[in-house]
Amino acid sequence: MASTTSSGDRVVSGSPDVQHSDYLLSRLWFQSQQLMDRPQEGFPALVFHCRDMQSLHRVHFYQPTLLLVLKGAKRIESPYDAICPQGNLLLIAQGSEFPFSNIPDDVYTALVICFQPDDFPFAGPADHTPELDIVQACNNVLTVIEQMMSLADLPADNPDIRALLWQQRRRELAQILTVLNQDKVLRVTDNPGWKQKLADLLQTDLSSTWQINEVCQMLAISESSLRRRLKEENTGFRELLEDLRLTHGLGLLQTTQWPVNQVALSCGYQSASRFSERFRKRFRISPAELRKAR
């Protein structure tokens, strides 16, 4: 039985290419389990895992994101109504927002890698670029991700060198995607709006008690102008800050074993109950329900 790779080559089930893909996916599965057991702060890949189906409402992606499904499938709800099956990449544009479900096949496991704007050699999104794309993960992409994952357990004696090596692997992945013409969705405009500028600043420390006056000083803009610019982009200072905090909390709940009160504090909430209340309103699922599915 023949199929077509993302590079356009036809392969046959059981061929060396397919066997190597299976080996790489198996290797990545093993590495993901190790990373779940020993998470590394600042590592460019996160492991998302659940044993029961998870459905999440209106998840916002503040960075261009690559998701590789290692087990199970991810279903993107309306208006896309798409499925990203095992062994495929879900490429998500910065600023996208949609509901989705994680569907286990015994379990659901995915690697998520968030890129920085300067990771890609070409700036600016292509014309008429969709918010997401689903492509088969070719061996070149899988190999770079596997090499990145192999660096997760580097000694922390020299954190700056370790962080540089992680960054180099992430950028190498971005370059491979560019060569394969799979970078269009992930490219970031070189002239971001004020919502993205503010989000980039707030994300540097979401546990901080941010005030709009200090933010305006850092961004060199008056408070009235910032509020007007954010309103033009259908958001506001407090609204954006809360959404960033809750989205960060979503990631921590899915990728760490931290208790909810520690997640809340990391996201800038002094009360775990307040965090849980706002989280449920935002994602239509409570932190406890989300954790139970793991």
TrEMBL record:
Q: Name the domain of life.
A: Bacteria
Residue limits of the HTH araC/xylS-type domain? Answer: 196-293
**InterPro entries, sorted:** Homeodomain-like_sf, HTH_AraC, HTH_AraC-typ_CS, Tscrpt_reg_AraC-type_HTH
Q: Which key words tag this protein in UniProt? A: DNA-binding, Transcription, Transcription regulation
Q: Which GO terms describe its cellular component?
A: cytosol
Give the stretches traversing the membrane: none
Does Transcription appear among the keywords? yes
**Pfam families per record:** HTH_18
Molecular function per GO: DNA-binding transcription factor activity; transcription cis-regulatory region binding
This chain's protein is named Helix-turn-helix transcriptional regulator
